[in-house]
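Lab notebook, design round three. We kept the backbone fixed and only want residue identities now. Task for the bench partner: fill in a sequence for the structure below.
Input structure tokens:
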């Protein structure tokens, strides 16, 4: 294996963006320049209706303008036009270090490594909702080095492997990275989390937007699981499905408040207690993280609501579009 300084294939950095002029400006300010000798930056605008494109044109990058078809189409379009041997995908709400490319591509020299994924920190740590989201995400990956899922906020992949597994599924507008990861691991490649490649992520700063996103993810994942039969991964394991079941039973038991309220109380307590482990782990960083308990509780209720809509979608044979996001 070559040293980091000797391994310098051409890299195409791709950034999908939609109606985010402030975030893409901060992203490009942090990205440019890199300490890497041979790279290009491609920004794909997914049909923005504000000044996002005007902001991008201020930088020495390639801009592709699309209609609003969703992130999968945007990423695939960028990679189709990429000249690099390596693809580095980053989200527009990231801020990155100057040596990101160097750190992200080095492990790809190993033929068994299909994708690398950056470690992340939080850029808006003055917002309580964002801090709670960040801490719950930390919980799921804190002891993982080679996950069987992908969060595509910052990932690197050889273009050859990307094409081999078929790119991102353009019928998926949420959860496309999970589907991509299944095909990567199914082809025999590993996904590696690089804890020495750190990026700063702007997490959602509104409880409503957080719950809306999880509602959307749940309904999409329900349909995806039915179609793909990919029920379990390191994020979606039996305990998480048990939590969903407990929250569903709690909701279904609401009418018992009229004649036998203890039934609802039992399911309510069980649903709350299902989040005790993540809460206690989170509180190692401070007492304020006790709020993880109610935060995860309402998040799972959003998941239950999303699954219910997913059931109706399937019964009506409805196919979602980006307008549903």
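Proposed sequence:
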């Amino acid at each position: 294996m070559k040293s980091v300084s000797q391994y310098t294939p051409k890299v195409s950095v791709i950034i999908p963006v939609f109606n985010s002029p402030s975030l893409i400006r901060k992203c490009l300010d942090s990205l440019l320049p890199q300490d890497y000798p041979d790279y290009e930056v491609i920004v794909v605008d997914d049909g923005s209706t504000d000044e996002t494109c005007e902001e991008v044109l201020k930088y020495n990058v390639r801009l592709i303008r699309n209609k609003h078809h969703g992130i999968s189409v945007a990423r695939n379009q960028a990679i189709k036009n990429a000249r690099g041997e390596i693809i580095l995908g980053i989200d527009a709400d990231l801020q990155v270090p100057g040596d990101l490319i160097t750190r992200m591509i080095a492990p790809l020299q190993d033929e068994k490594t299909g994708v690398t994924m950056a470690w992340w920190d939080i850029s808006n740590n003055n917002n309580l909702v964002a801090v709670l989201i960040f801490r719950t995400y930390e919980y799921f990956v804190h002891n993982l080095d080679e996950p069987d899922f992908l969060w595509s906020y910052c990932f690197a992949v050889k273009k050859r492997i990307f094409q081999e597994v078929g790119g991102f599924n353009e019928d998926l507008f949420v959860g496309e990275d999970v589907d991509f990861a299944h095909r990567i691991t199914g082809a025999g490649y590993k996904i590696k989390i690089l804890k020495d490649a750190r990026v700063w992520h702007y997490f959602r700063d509104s409880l409503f937007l957080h719950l809306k996103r999880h509602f959307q993810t749940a309904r999409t994942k329900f349909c995806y699981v039915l179609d793909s039969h990919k029920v379990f991964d390191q994020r979606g394991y039996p305990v998480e499905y048990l939590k969903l079941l407990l929250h569903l039973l709690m909701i279904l038991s609401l009418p018992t408040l009229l004649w036998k309220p203890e039934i609802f109380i039992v399911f309510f307590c069980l649903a709350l207690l299902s989040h005790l482990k993540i809460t206690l782990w989170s509180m190692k960083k401070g007492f304020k993280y006790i709020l993880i308990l109610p935060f995860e509780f309402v998040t799972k209720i959003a998941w239950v609501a999303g699954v219910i809509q997913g059931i109706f979608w399937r019964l009506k044979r409805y196919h979602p579009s980006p307008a549903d996001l």
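Keep this in mind before ordering anything: The CA atoms of residues 203 and 314 lie 31 Å apart.
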